Amino acid sequence: MTRLPLPRILSTGGAHLARSRELARTAADNATDVLHPLITISRGLRHLATTGRRRWADTPKDRRGSLFFLVASVVLVVALVPYGPLLAVIAVMAAAAWAGRERAGSQPPGPTEPQSQRLQSLYEALVPYFSTSDDPEPLYAHGGAWDKAFPSFDFDQTGRVRRLLIRYPAYFTDGEAASRARIEQLLHAKAGRGREYRFDWDEEGNELTVTVLAPLPTDITAQRFVTAPGELVLGFTDPAHVQRTLPLAHGDEQRDVPPVVWRTGVRSTEPHLLVVGEPGSGTTTLLRSLAIQALQYGDVVIVEGGGSGEYACLTGRAGVLAVECGLTGSLASLEWAAQETERRLIATNHARQANRPTPDDIRRPLWLLLDRPSALTHLASADGRADPQSLLEVPLRHGRAANVTVVVAENFDHLDTLTDAVKQHTRARVVLGPASEEQLTSILGTPPPTTPTPDTPPGRGYARLGAPPVLRLQVPATPDPYDEESPAPHREAVLKLLPIRTTPADETAAEVTAPS
To answer: In this structure, are residues 301 and 371 in contact, taking their beta carbons and an 8 Å threshold?
Structure first.
């Protein structure tokens, strides 16, 4: 059987196709060379637009108006200047060409060998928790690859994980607190101890984001904060969890720090505060800071159960009605506060019925600050007298309507001595100093989303103002100005904030009684 010759088009088609591909490749290379400047500028414009959107998203909402006004002013000036638009276009093209240039010597994407080993170690540690024998296509398996489980990661300069996005199977019980706590404890141990981590669980997307938090600043001293009447600064927190910043003076410089603002007064949802911590954790510092801030707009009554004289600097100052350390004086001051609350309620009711404005003395806030009332409770019980905390029921129950605010500070060991009225009406909570997760949960109502630090500085803790989530907190340094062991600049800052003294020092010293 003879073989017929192939058609000419099929016998010579391979050479034509090869020659066509070579011509197309040459044309593409020539076009790339010709259009290289345009490609570079386009890549640079895209990079500049991405950077601009990121900067706009990172800008706090209270500063976006001024930023928009600044940009609009620059655009208007450029439009009015002769040859301004042409020069602006040239400048933008030059910036885009510089931003879109090919950077020589750039490292290829992906982790280094030590980083890959660390990620593989984390992956192997999570296998027993994120895998089952019934899974036909397990995301986690011994000897498996970590790249699908960890789609996003970042390392610090020391080679430890700084941010990690973890995907886990849908059957993992992420709705149970015990299961989540096991994973968080494991990651805290494997990713590196001695740091504070935040865990953000996305139960809908089956993802966990682990972030290493930067330490909160501990060098912020007491100063006049830019707040409205009725707003008090408890301390400072992370910038990602509040939508506000305060301008603060730090030596000769000025910086913006995100605050934890507690709103008090008639329209406050949580008008009373409970502060809990061990001795030396900063509870007295926080009460002293609140007293100095409250004296700008109101009157203050201080009851100190410890009797250590931590509030002697406020004795005899304008707006300070009393600083009591003894049982007799404390009972008298709290009884007056209860009667004053009732008087304010009656006066407010009469003013509303008569369609008249509330009197000025009723609108002026009254603050009751109690530091360690359990000591006075013990003294009253031994002496057969009434518990001073029983006199707080009226100010706690009707304090918001009467513009009366109660702040109680107590130690962990004496929380059982607090009355039910104090526990029920102080839903704004602050925990300072080292504390276990069980203690934090029992006081704040929910566990904090971060791991505690091994070395807790004074004034460091957590705050939860009612229903919002728990926030990290660092109280501003507000030491006793008469304590010579405190840094001199911190003591001088407190002295500058104290109101004028209205009573001579020798008379005020006699008014401060010792514990009974």
So the answer is: no
The mean pLDDT of the chain is 85
Query: DSSP string of 43-111?
Result: HHHHHHHHHHHHHHHHS-HHHHHHHHHHHHHHHHHHHHSTTHHHHHHHHHHHHHHHHTSPPTTPPPSS-
Spatial contact of 289 and 478, defined as CB atoms under 8 Å apart: yes
Look-up of token digits 């109690």: 370
Query: Is the sign of the CA dihedral 425, 431, 432, 438 positive or negative?
Result: positive
Q: Which H or E run includes 404? A: strand 404-410
Q: In sequence order, what E strands does 127-230 have?
A: 152-155, 161-167, 196-202, 207-213
Q: Letter for the amino acid at 377?
A: T
Is it the case that residue 401 has pLDDT exceeding 50?
A: yes
Whether pLDDT at 96 is above 70: yes
Q: How confident is the model at residue 17 (pLDDT cuts 50, 70, 90)?
A: low
Q: Where are the alpha helices (DSSP H) in 143-260?
A: 177-191
Asked if 178 contacts 185 with a C-beta cutoff of 8 angstroms, the reply is no
What b/e string do you get for 398-421 counting C-beta neighbours within 10 Å, with b at 16 or more? ebbebbbbbbbbbbbebbebbbeb
Query: Which of these, 150, 149, 153, 167, lies nearest to 205 by C-alpha position?
Result: 167
Contacts of 476 (CB under 8 A, 6+ apart): 220, 221, 222, 223, 233, 235, 236, 289, 459
6 pLDDT above the threshold of 80? no
pLDDT surpasses 60 at 367: yes
Q: Is residue 221 a contact partner of residue 476, using CB atoms and an 8 Å limit?
A: yes
Local structure of residue 484 (DSSP, 8 states): T
Q: Which residues of 305-340 are buried (b: 16+ CB within 10 A; e: fewer)?
A: bbbebbbbbbbbbebbbbbbbbbebbbebbeebbeb
- Cβ-Cβ contacts under 8 Å for 244 (sequence gap 6 or more): 60, 62, 258, 259, 261
Contact 125/186 with Cβ under 8 angstroms? Answer: yes
- Residue 257: closest CA among 292, 296, 214: 214
Where does 203-245 show beta strands of DSSP type E? 207-213, 231-236
Strands (E), 264-362: 273-277, 299-304, 320-324
For the chain, how big is the Rg over CA atoms in Å? 33
Are 344 and 404 in contact, with CB atoms under 8 Å apart? yes
pTM for this structure?
Answer: 0.74
